[in-house]
């Protein structure tokens, strides 16, 4: 199994390839990586921040026993020392008038492309390390996505991203999320940086070259991306053609609907058609507008009962009407979850459960990331011209990747004047095939240990909140005070 890391810095340099690889192979904790990095800088190397971040992702991949590969994207372009004017001059002499018309500083040296194609083809997972430019990736990194889109090179690859900006909150997350959305659309499966934070990949701070070595937490998130991409790549590449005995269950959470059950009806019809084509899939549709979901109390009690405790329930809300426990148990046995929503013109008709569901799932996340490795995607029924819920799939990506899941390409159904332009059938079939491949590959690969355990304790404030909301229906048992990690 092999993971390719790309560096999108314009300050990266081929001459530093060996140093980056040396850093990637550093053994021990991140502090050791930092020590090594600083010694390379002291020795006169001007490593760019994205090169260092790339090395941190590769260290993560390597720690999982996977092969690492590295490609600085600047290699694809005319050497930065030759100015645009030099290149123009040369082209003019060669009277390449047509080429001249298209010349920009991002013109690719075509003969360098083959090397990149080969590396991508050999890789099961791909990681991008990029500087943040205006809350987005660099132009060099962007070129990579243009190249991969041209030939669908990211189809079925596991993708993760790490970025570095000069400032905290400098747009690292927006940068990562854009790349995640675009690679999903190119057919990749997307992961974040895994526990303990399980966010949108690596996010680091550093301005001048080498500064990122001062950001241990940021480097650790990049390291996490490497681990996560390697782990999911291993599962997904193990059984590319699963045997016919493997059956899967797909849970569809209908998080919003009209009172006439417009979405649920559509999904029942769609899933019955798909189940006829692939009889190895079972769909379970959860119509959540029929269920009660209490708001998260934001308390300090959830989730894991302390060791030796007889408590089995993981949330303090125990009203039998509340459907979260039932849903949690169903998702635990599931191979794939679809978070379904509506984006229709008559927005007023929508009954929402999406937001309350998403916030209540906090206790499931805090239970050692119970949904780890579950394949998840968003599905949205869109009417042309509707805007009120047009980012449903993006919201699904950003909220549900935080459960340490793997995200699949969203399913978007489009309707124009009652005519269905895209019915979602092909996308659903693709998703089921991916879920089946993942299930087959998972066998024999242990679920990674989560270093994150959020122990709770029932502090006074939580008790007060609970009593107010549920009039005493919620049972609170005071537990021994434990260290708390709040998110
Ligand atoms: C054109 C440009 C735009 C930038 N935009 C941002 C930004 O939006 N947010 C931020 O935090 N840093 C921004 N920076 C700073 C770089 O992201 C930062 O210096 C980074 O460490 C560069 O990475 P490198 O050393 O790998 O080239 C920008 C830098 C440049 C040159």
Termini separation comes to 34 Å
Name the CATH class of the largest domain: Alpha Beta
Low-confidence stretches: 456-487
Shape: globular
Beta-sheet strand percentage?
A: 15-25%
Count of distinct structural domains: 2
Annotation, overall tally of beta strands: 15
Given the structure, what is the number of helices? Answer: 16
Mean of all residue-level pLDDT scores: 87
Biggest sheet, in brief?
Answer: 7 strands, mixed
Helix content: 25-40%
Please, could you describe this protein's structure?
The protein is of the alpha/beta class and 487 residues long. It has 2 domains: 237 residues, 3-Layer(aba) Sandwich (Rossmann fold); 195 residues, Flavodoxin domain (Rossmann fold, 3-Layer(aba) Sandwich). Helices cover 39% and strands 16% of the residues. The chain contains 16 helices and 15 strands. The strands form 3 sheets. Strands 7, 9, 10, 12, 13, 14 and 15 form a 7-stranded mixed sheet that branches. Helix 3 packs across helix 9. The longest helix has 23 residues. The protein is globular and about 65 Å long. The relative contact order is 0.11. The C terminus is likely disordered. It binds flavin mononucleotide. The site of flavin mononucleotide has 19 residues, from helix 3 and strand 4. Flavin mononucleotide (FMN) binds next to helix 3 and strand 4.
């Amino acid at each position: 199994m092999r993971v390719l890391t790309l560096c999108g810095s314009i300050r990266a340099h081929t001459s530093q390839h060996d140093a980056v690889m040396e850093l990637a192979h550093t053994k021990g904790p991140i502090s050791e990586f930092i020590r090594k990095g600083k010694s390379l800088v002291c020795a006169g190397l001007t490593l760019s921040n994205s090169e260092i971040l790339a090395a941190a992702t590769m260290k993560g991949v390597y720690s999982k026993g996977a092969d690492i590969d590295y490609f600085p994207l600047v290699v694809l372009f005319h050497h930065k020392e030759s100015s645009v004017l030099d290149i123009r001059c040369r082209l003019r002499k060669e009277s390449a008038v047509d080429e001249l018309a298209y010349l920009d500083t991002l013109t690719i040296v075509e003969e360098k492309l083959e090397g990149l194609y080969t590396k991508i083809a050999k890789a099961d997972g791909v990681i991008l390390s990029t500087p943040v430019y205006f809350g987005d990736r660099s132009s060099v990194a962007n070129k990579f996505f243009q190249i991969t889109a041209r030939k669908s090179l990211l189809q079925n690859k596991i993708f993760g991203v790490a970025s570095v900006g000069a400032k905290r909150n400098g747009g690292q997350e927006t940068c990562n999320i854009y790349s995640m959305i675009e690679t999903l659309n190119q057919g990749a499966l997307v992961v974040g940086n895994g526990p303990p934070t399980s966010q949108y990949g690596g996010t680091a701070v550093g301005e001048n070259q080498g500064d990122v070595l001062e950001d241990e937490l940021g480097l650790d998130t990049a390291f996490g991306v490497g681990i996560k991409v390697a782990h999911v790549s291993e599962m997904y590449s193990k059984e590319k053609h699963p045997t016919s005995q493997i059956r899967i269950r797909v849970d569809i959470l209908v998080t919003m609907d009209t009172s006439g059950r417009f979405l649920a009806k559509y999904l029942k019809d769609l899933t019955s058609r798909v189940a006829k084509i692939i009889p190895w899939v079972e769909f379970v549709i959860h119509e959540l507008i029929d269920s009660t979901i209490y708001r998260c109390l934001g308390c300090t009690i959830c989730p894991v009962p302390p060791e030796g405790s007889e408590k089995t329930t993981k949330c303090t809300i125990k009203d039998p009407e509340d459907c979260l426990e039932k849903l949690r148990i169903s998702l635990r046995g599931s191979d794939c979850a679809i978070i379904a929503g509506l984006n229709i013109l008559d927005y007023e008709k929508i009954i929402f459960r999406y937001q309350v569901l998403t916030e209540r799932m906090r206790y499931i996340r805090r239970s050692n990331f119970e949904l780890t490795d579950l394949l998840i995607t968003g599905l949205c029924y869109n009417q042309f011209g509707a805007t009120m819920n047009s980012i449903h799939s993006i919201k699904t990506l950003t909220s549900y990747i935080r459960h340490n899941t793997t995200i699949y390409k969203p399913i978007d159904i489009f309707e124009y004047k009652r005519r269905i332009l895209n019915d979602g059938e092909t996308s659903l079939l693709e998703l089921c095939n991916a879920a089946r491949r993942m299930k087959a590959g998972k066998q024999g690969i242990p679920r990674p240990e989560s270093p994150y355990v959020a122990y709770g304790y029932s502090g006074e404030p939580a008790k007060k909140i609970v009593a107010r909301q549920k009039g005493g229906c919620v049972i609170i048992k005071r537990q021994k005070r434990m260290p708390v990690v709040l998110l």
